[in-house]
Amino acid sequence: AKSFRVVVLPGDGIGPEVVEQAIRVLETVSELSPDFELKLESHPFGGCAIDAVGEPLPESTLKACQEADAILMGSIGGPKWGVDAKVRPEVGLLTLRKTLGLYANIRPANLASDSLLNYSPLRPEIAKGTDLIVIRELIGGAYFGKRKEQNVEPNPEEAWDTMIYSVAEVERITRVAAQIALAANPPLEIHSIDKANVLASSRLWRKVVTETLTREYPQLKFDHHLVDSAAMVIVANPRKLNGVILTENLFGDILSDQSSVIPGSLGLLPSASLAGAPSDPSSPNFRPTSGLYEPIHGSAPDIAGKGIANPIGTILSAAMLLRYSLGLEKPAKAIEESVRKALDSEDAGGLGLRTADLGGKSSTKELGDKIIELL
Amino acid sequence: AKSFRVVVLPGDGIGPEVVEQAIRVLETVSELSPDFELKLESHPFGGCAIDAVGEPLPESTLKACQEADAILMGSIGGPKWGVDAKVRPEVGLLTLRKTLGLYANIRPANLASDSLLNYSPLRPEIAKGTDLIVIRELIGGAYFGKRKEQNVEPNPEEAWDTMIYSVAEVERITRVAAQIALAANPPLEIHSIDKANVLASSRLWRKVVTETLTREYPQLKFDHHLVDSAAMVIVANPRKLNGVILTENLFGDILSDQSSVIPGSLGLLPSASLAGAPSDPSSPNFRPTSGLYEPIHGSAPDIAGKGIANPIGTILSAAMLLRYSLGLEKPAKAIEESVRKALDSEDAGGLGLRTADLGGKSSTKELGDKIIELL
Ligand SMILES: CC(C)[C@H](C(=O)O)[C@@H](O)C(=O)O
Ligand SMILES: CC(C)[C@H](C(=O)O)[C@@H](O)C(=O)O
């Protein structure tokens, strides 16, 4: 049996609670299959690491992440380590992304089940059928360009950041979007988002996306949208952008969060941050990609410790981990199926298996139990 | 009688059609009042100016704008002058903003009438009561920072833009937000939006907003939100941000467009771009502010020339023009009242006075007629 090393970073707030259920799910699929074995090990990361050792990303945690086949994270941060704090959890996350070269952030926003339509802030007829995958460049742009803080010479009265992209950076993220688009049958359409009518970095973005797709993936359909217009369409008519939304770091931060409220609860959605294009796990040429997997929700300090957080985003992140970093498509699909069944069980038997974010009374653990039972 | 010079820039696409109705409305309020007189003059601007004289902002148009008491614009651009074109209409707009020092963009997003709730893409119970005013800094940030295009030395493979803000730039836009907040009774809450957990320019933004408001407007309530989180809240629960949304140029571009789909049709919403803080027209110390007023919709080439565009956004922009640049509060209010009545007339008498964007069959001119009749 193949053996994989998975580093777990439970983090802060509800992080440890939701991660616990995802670990149980991973342990179950591994027990059910003779083909592979998972070695799970937890490490401190984020606010809890600041409290324990004074820094969000301790050397030992970074080293474990670098050696792991994949990383599963809960959530980090909280009011205790706010924007004004000296050492902040997010800095650990940004360093981890950069050091591991996790340039491709993948965030699906779709309705896992039509039974959830009533939880969307959009009218059901507008939300229905929304099926977006945001592919966000994660280690370039204004996040990592040169910057100058206020009160620093020269010009202490000014502060600035640089939105910068190179041809190579845009090419590689475009290829990730193309691979994801091609993995679907029929292939997905790619919607590239920029602000090319104003920004030089966006003009480069648009040109390189066009050239890369035309040259290397002539079979794929794609178009370009300005970011302001895309922000309107995502609310007014999200199906119009169904397929892959390909964009740079800062726009992706905004648009992926905006998209993620359509399916009704942030608690449902997973994400992956990869160091390379995900290849098809069912192909003999599958090449694993190191990656960090986490739910998109935050650490939700208001409900931390109460055992009522929705574990589904983390459990679906674990499914993505199996698929993209370990090449294990079968157990990934099995988990996704169980989640869908668990969500639909309310309609079926009136079980009301919903956590508080979806208007229910179930505990984090009860969701975990049900999903495991259905595996 | 006081005489005011108003420059009109009809622009492209549906611009001339909607501007025509706003001019009729302005002429009517001016005829109805012995206190003031409006001198209206049209100038070429945008795509039509490119076609006529090879540039979007001819010298004579700029000069007229500089000498005017206020400017009313339709809309500019279209597929004919796309992102790849040598000379683009938007460049004229950016130059006009910068040259006239129009640093404060004001964009209300509210439901002019509850009878429109059914046109919002949001569930009625979520859209109801939404009352946002986005105040966007308009001549700083990445729009006007130093930039480098691709294929330029050094590093032809890279392109970049600079998001830059100075203390003075943030102070003055904060004061505009404070004035707008104080003009309401009770004063509005201010929600400042940035990305201070990542960007240096946002850290300056947050610090200066906090200091300016605390020092100069201690009576006002304010808070800070990260832009990604704000983009979620605007969809999930927009009332939470009711009041003034204060933000920098690029974030404001995205968030104001996103907000503007909540009220059901872009065709309804006005905007103002001002060179100074708007003072209270009812106060004896009123100081006029030069400004550019325009509907937020684009040139909609698909329906141009058909006479079916919604003129309300432009008519409400004309009302803002009277208020902020001419200090004429009474006719401004009168116009806003007539628009509200015209929109509600469907419920009242089944007139179906709606343009196509709101599911109706009325023409642009019919809307204009009705609003003038109600004045
Ligand atoms: C915590 C923060 C630095 C981070 C980001 O902006 O990338 C977060 O918002 C995210 O999207 O993962
Ligand atoms: C046309 C474009 C340059 C402009 C902008 O980005 O400012 C437009 O989107 C707007 O918001 O007025």
TrEMBL record, chains A, B:
<dbReference type="GO" id="GO:0000287">
    <property type="term" value="F:magnesium ion binding"/>
</dbReference>
<keyword id="KW-0560">Oxidoreductase</keyword>
<dbReference type="InterPro" id="IPR024084">
    <property type="entry name" value="IsoPropMal-DH-like_dom"/>
</dbReference>
<keyword id="KW-0520">NAD</keyword>
<comment type="similarity">
    <text>Belongs to the isocitrate and isopropylmalate dehydrogenases family.</text>
</comment>
<keyword id="KW-0460">Magnesium</keyword>
<keyword id="KW-0432">Leucine biosynthesis</keyword>
<keyword id="KW-0100">Branched-chain amino acid biosynthesis</keyword>
<dbReference type="GO" id="GO:0009098">
    <property type="term" value="P:L-leucine biosynthetic process"/>
</dbReference>
<protein>
    <recommendedName>
        <fullName>3-isopropylmalate dehydrogenase</fullName>
        <ecNumber>1.1.1.85</ecNumber>
    </recommendedName>
</protein>
<dbReference type="Pfam" id="PF00180">
    <property type="entry name" value="Iso_dh"/>
</dbReference>
<dbReference type="GO" id="GO:0003862">
    <property type="term" value="F:3-isopropylmalate dehydrogenase activity"/>
</dbReference>
<keyword id="KW-0028">Amino-acid biosynthesis</keyword>
<feature type="domain" description="Isopropylmalate dehydrogenase-like">
    <location>
        <begin position="5"/>
        <end position="371"/>
    </location>
</feature>
<comment type="function">
    <text>Catalyzes the oxidation of 3-carboxy-2-hydroxy-4-methylpentanoate (3-isopropylmalate) to 3-carboxy-4-methyl-2-oxopentanoate. The product decarboxylates to 4-methyl-2 oxopentanoate.</text>
</comment>
<dbReference type="InterPro" id="IPR004429">
    <property type="entry name" value="Isopropylmalate_DH"/>
</dbReference>
<comment type="pathway">
    <text>Amino-acid biosynthesis; L-leucine biosynthesis; L-leucine from 3-methyl-2-oxobutanoate: step 3/4.</text>
</comment>
<dbReference type="GO" id="GO:0005829">
    <property type="term" value="C:cytosol"/>
</dbReference>
<dbReference type="GO" id="GO:0051287">
    <property type="term" value="F:NAD binding"/>
</dbReference>
<comment type="subunit">
    <text>Homodimer.</text>
</comment>
<keyword id="KW-0464">Manganese</keyword>
<keyword id="KW-0479">Metal-binding</keyword>
<dbReference type="InterPro" id="IPR019818">
    <property type="entry name" value="IsoCit/isopropylmalate_DH_CS"/>
</dbReference>
